[in-house]
Amino acid sequence: MRRFGTLTLKIILWIIGIIIFLVLLVFILIRVPAVQNWARTKAVSYLEGKIGTKVEINRISLDLPKLIVLEDIYFEDQKKDTLLAGDTLKVDVSLLKLLDNKLEINEIDLRGITANVQRNADSVFNFDYIIKAFAGEQKKEPKPEDTTSTMKFSIDKINLDRIRISYADAPSANDVRFYLGHFDTRIKEFDLDSMRFNVPKITLANVNARVVQGKPAAESKPMAQHEAESSEPLGIDFSFGVLDLSKIKVYYQNDVSAMKADVDLGKLQVESDKLDLKKQHISLENLDLTNSNILFQLGRKQQAKVVTQEAKKAAEATANNWKFTVTDINLENNNIRFDDFNMPVLKRGMDFSHLSINSLSLNAEDLVYALDTISGKINSGSFREKSGFDLRKFETEFFYGAKEAYLKDLDIQTPVTRIRDNIRVTYPSIASISSNLGELGIEANLKETKIGFRDILTLAPAMANTVPLKGNTNAVLNINGRIRGKVKSLEIPNLEISGLGATRIKASAKTRGLPDMNETWLDVKIDEFSTRRSDILALVPRGTIPSNISIPEAIRLQGYFKGSMSNFSTDLNANTSYGSLRAIASYDARIKGKEKYKANIRAFNLNAGKFIKNDSIGRITLAANVVGEGIDPKTMRARAVAKLIKAEYNGYAYRNLTVDGTAGRGTISAKANMSDPNIDFDLIANADMRKKYPSVKLDLNVDSIDMGKLNLMKDDLRFHGKLSADLPTADPDYLNGSVVLSNALIARNGERFTLDTVSIVSTANADSSTLKLRSEIMSANLRGKYKLTQIGSAMQDLISKYFSTGPKAQPAKYEPQNFTFNARVVNTPIFEKFAPDLKELATIVLSGSFDSRAGTLNVNGSVPRILYGSNDINNLQIKINTTDSALAYAFTVDRLNVSQFQLFAARIAGDVKNNTLSTDISTRDKNNKQNYRIAGALKALQDAYQLSLNPNGLMLNYTDWNVSQDNAIQFGGKGIQATNFILSNSDQKLSINTTPPGLNNPLVIDFSNFKIETLTNIAGQDSLLAGGTINGKANVRNFDTSPVFTSDLTVQDFSFRGDTVGNIAIKVNNEQANTFAANVGITGKGNQVNLDGYYYTNNSSFDLDLDIVNLNMKSIEGFTMDNMKNAKGNLKGKLDITGTANAPAIRGSIGFQDAAFTVPMLNSHFSVQNDAEIRFNDEGIRLSNFALIDSANNKLSLNGTVFTKTYTDYRFDLALNADNFRVINSTAADNDLYYGKLFINSRLNIKGTPASPSVDGSLKINEATNLTLVLPATDPSIEDREGIVEFVDKDNPKLSKTFKNPADTLNKSALTGMDISINIELAKEAVLNVIVDPGNGDMLTMRGQAQLNGGIDPSGKISLTGNLTLEEGSYNLSFNFLKRKFDIQKGSTLTWNGDPLAADVDVTAVYVAETAPIDLVEAQLGDAPQTTLNTYKQKLPFNVSLNLKGELMKPNISFDIVLPEKNYNVSSDIVNNVNGRLTQLRNEPSELNKQVFALLLLNRFISENPFASSAGGGGGLESTARQSVSRLLSDQLNNLASDLVGGVELEFDLQSSEDYTTGEMQNRTDLNVGLSKRLLNDRLKVTVGSNFELEGPRQQNRKTNNIAGDIQAEYQLSKNGRYLLRAYQKNEYQVALQGQVIETGVGFVVTMDYNKFKEIFRSRADEDKRRRRLQKSAKETTKEND
Question: Could you report the per-residue pLDDT of 344-370, keeping only the tens digit for each?
Answer without folding.
Answer: 888 888 888 888 889 999 999 988 888
